[in-house]
Amino acid sequence: MHANRLSRFVLVLTAVLLGCSLFTLPGFAANGEEAPAHLRCEYLKNPMGIDVLQPRFQWLLEVSRRAEMQTAYQVLVASSPAILARDRGDEWDSGKVMSADSTQVAYKGKALETGRTYYWKVRYWDSQGNPSAYSQPARFEMGLLARSDWKGQWIGGDGLLRKSFDLPAGVV
Description:
This protein is α+β, with helices and mostly antiparallel strands. It is built from two helices and seven strands; from the N terminus they run αβββαββββ. The strands form two sheets. The protein has a four-stranded antiparallel β-sheet.
Protein backbone atom coordinates (compact mmCIF):
# COMPACT_ATOMS: atom_id res chain seq x y z
CA MET A 1 0.00 0.00 0.00
CA HIS A 2 1.34 3.46 -0.88
CA ALA A 3 2.71 5.32 2.17
CA ASN A 4 0.27 8.24 1.82
CA ARG A 5 -2.72 5.92 1.50
CA LEU A 6 -1.43 3.81 4.38
CA SER A 7 -1.22 6.89 6.61
CA ARG A 8 -4.78 7.88 5.58
CA PHE A 9 -5.95 4.35 6.36
CA VAL A 10 -4.31 4.52 9.79
CA LEU A 11 -6.02 7.89 10.46
CA VAL A 12 -9.41 6.51 9.46
CA LEU A 13 -8.91 3.31 11.47
CA THR A 14 -7.81 5.35 14.50
CA ALA A 15 -10.86 7.59 14.19
CA VAL A 16 -13.16 4.57 14.00
CA LEU A 17 -11.53 2.84 16.97
CA LEU A 18 -11.62 6.00 19.08
CA GLY A 19 -15.18 6.83 18.05
CA CYS A 20 -14.12 10.12 16.43
CA SER A 21 -15.63 11.52 13.30
CA LEU A 22 -13.41 12.08 10.29
CA PHE A 23 -14.01 15.83 10.15
CA THR A 24 -11.79 16.21 13.22
CA LEU A 25 -8.85 14.77 11.28
CA PRO A 26 -6.70 16.96 9.03
CA GLY A 27 -7.33 16.63 5.30
CA PHE A 28 -10.93 15.45 5.64
CA ALA A 29 -14.12 17.46 5.26
CA ALA A 30 -17.14 16.92 7.48
CA ASN A 31 -18.46 14.41 4.95
CA GLY A 32 -15.20 12.44 4.97
CA GLU A 33 -14.02 13.60 1.54
CA GLU A 34 -10.26 13.76 1.31
CA ALA A 35 -8.62 16.97 0.18
CA PRO A 36 -7.14 17.26 -3.32
CA ALA A 37 -3.45 16.35 -3.48
CA HIS A 38 -0.42 16.52 -5.79
CA LEU A 39 -0.97 20.20 -6.61
CA ARG A 40 0.94 21.48 -9.63
CA CYS A 41 1.34 24.87 -11.28
CA GLU A 42 2.50 24.79 -14.90
CA TYR A 43 3.08 21.03 -14.39
CA LEU A 44 5.59 21.62 -11.57
CA LYS A 45 5.45 21.29 -7.79
CA ASN A 46 6.00 24.72 -6.17
CA PRO A 47 7.74 26.18 -9.27
CA MET A 48 10.04 29.18 -9.31
CA GLY A 49 10.44 31.56 -12.23
CA ILE A 50 7.04 31.14 -13.89
CA ASP A 51 6.79 33.47 -16.89
CA VAL A 52 3.18 32.75 -17.82
CA LEU A 53 0.69 35.52 -17.03
CA GLN A 54 -2.14 33.03 -16.48
CA PRO A 55 -0.47 29.95 -15.00
CA ARG A 56 -2.41 26.69 -15.13
CA PHE A 57 -3.20 24.62 -12.05
CA GLN A 58 -3.86 20.94 -11.62
CA TRP A 59 -4.60 18.54 -8.76
CA LEU A 60 -5.55 14.93 -8.12
CA LEU A 61 -8.51 13.62 -6.17
CA GLU A 62 -7.77 10.94 -3.63
CA VAL A 63 -11.20 9.54 -2.94
CA SER A 64 -12.07 6.40 -1.05
CA ARG A 65 -15.42 5.71 -2.75
CA ARG A 66 -15.63 4.00 -6.10
CA ALA A 67 -16.92 5.96 -9.10
CA GLU A 68 -16.64 9.27 -7.24
CA MET A 69 -15.99 12.37 -9.30
CA GLN A 70 -15.51 16.10 -8.98
CA THR A 71 -18.51 18.20 -9.99
CA ALA A 72 -17.12 21.62 -8.98
CA TYR A 73 -13.97 23.22 -7.60
CA GLN A 74 -12.75 26.37 -5.88
CA VAL A 75 -9.21 27.72 -6.20
CA LEU A 76 -7.84 30.33 -3.80
CA VAL A 77 -4.65 32.29 -4.56
CA ALA A 78 -3.22 34.57 -1.88
CA SER A 79 -0.29 36.91 -1.44
CA SER A 80 0.70 35.33 1.88
CA PRO A 81 0.36 31.99 3.69
CA ALA A 82 -1.50 33.74 6.53
CA ILE A 83 -4.25 35.01 4.24
CA LEU A 84 -4.59 31.58 2.61
CA ALA A 85 -4.79 29.93 6.05
CA ARG A 86 -7.96 31.99 6.65
CA ASP A 87 -9.46 30.41 3.50
CA ARG A 88 -9.23 33.69 1.62
CA GLY A 89 -7.81 34.43 -1.81
CA ASP A 90 -6.83 38.10 -2.00
CA GLU A 91 -5.30 37.61 -5.46
CA TRP A 92 -7.97 35.24 -6.81
CA ASP A 93 -10.97 33.38 -5.48
CA SER A 94 -12.50 31.39 -8.31
CA GLY A 95 -15.68 30.86 -6.33
CA LYS A 96 -17.49 27.58 -6.85
CA VAL A 97 -16.93 26.64 -10.49
CA MET A 98 -19.22 23.89 -11.79
CA SER A 99 -16.68 21.77 -13.65
CA ALA A 100 -15.02 18.37 -13.52
CA ASP A 101 -11.75 19.95 -14.70
CA SER A 102 -8.77 19.34 -12.45
CA THR A 103 -6.08 20.06 -15.06
CA GLN A 104 -5.38 23.12 -17.16
CA VAL A 105 -7.35 25.37 -14.78
CA ALA A 106 -6.09 28.84 -15.74
CA TYR A 107 -5.50 31.61 -13.22
CA LYS A 108 -8.04 34.43 -13.70
CA GLY A 109 -7.24 36.79 -10.86
CA LYS A 110 -5.37 40.05 -10.38
CA ALA A 111 -2.34 40.71 -12.59
CA LEU A 112 0.63 38.71 -11.30
CA GLU A 113 3.78 40.65 -10.49
CA THR A 114 7.41 39.96 -11.33
CA GLY A 115 9.38 38.14 -8.67
CA ARG A 116 6.48 37.67 -6.24
CA THR A 117 5.57 34.42 -4.54
CA TYR A 118 1.92 33.39 -4.47
CA TYR A 119 0.22 30.71 -2.37
CA TRP A 120 -2.73 28.59 -3.46
CA LYS A 121 -5.02 25.75 -2.49
CA VAL A 122 -8.09 24.06 -3.88
CA ARG A 123 -11.15 22.10 -2.81
CA TYR A 124 -13.76 20.21 -4.80
CA TRP A 125 -17.39 19.13 -4.57
CA ASP A 126 -18.29 15.47 -5.05
CA SER A 127 -21.16 13.96 -7.03
CA GLN A 128 -23.53 14.43 -4.06
CA GLY A 129 -22.63 18.13 -3.80
CA ASN A 130 -20.45 17.75 -0.68
CA PRO A 131 -17.31 19.89 -0.46
CA SER A 132 -13.94 18.34 0.36
CA ALA A 133 -11.46 19.83 2.76
CA TYR A 134 -9.03 22.32 1.22
CA SER A 135 -5.77 20.91 -0.06
CA GLN A 136 -2.49 21.58 1.64
CA PRO A 137 -1.13 24.93 0.43
CA ALA A 138 1.20 25.12 -2.55
CA ARG A 139 3.12 28.06 -3.98
CA PHE A 140 4.52 29.44 -7.19
CA GLU A 141 6.96 32.26 -7.83
CA MET A 142 6.81 34.56 -10.79
CA GLY A 143 9.91 35.12 -12.88
CA LEU A 144 10.83 38.21 -14.86
CA LEU A 145 7.82 39.10 -16.97
CA ALA A 146 8.98 42.14 -18.95
CA ARG A 147 12.21 43.09 -20.69
CA SER A 148 12.48 46.08 -18.34
CA ASP A 149 12.61 43.70 -15.34
CA TRP A 150 16.08 42.55 -16.35
CA LYS A 151 18.69 44.61 -14.52
CA GLY A 152 22.22 43.87 -15.73
CA GLN A 153 25.08 45.03 -17.87
CA TRP A 154 27.29 43.24 -20.31
CA ILE A 155 30.71 42.21 -19.10
CA GLY A 156 33.37 43.11 -21.60
CA GLY A 157 33.28 45.34 -24.64
CA ASP A 158 30.38 46.00 -26.96
CA GLY A 159 28.24 43.24 -25.50
CA LEU A 160 30.24 40.51 -27.23
CA LEU A 161 31.36 37.40 -25.43
CA ARG A 162 33.71 35.64 -27.82
CA LYS A 163 37.28 34.49 -28.13
CA SER A 164 39.17 33.53 -31.26
CA PHE A 165 41.28 30.38 -31.37
CA ASP A 166 42.88 28.05 -33.93
CA LEU A 167 42.11 24.38 -34.47
CA PRO A 168 45.36 22.89 -35.78
CA ALA A 169 43.88 19.43 -36.54
CA GLY A 170 40.47 20.57 -37.71
CA VAL A 171 37.07 19.64 -36.32
CA VAL A 172 36.31 15.96 -35.68
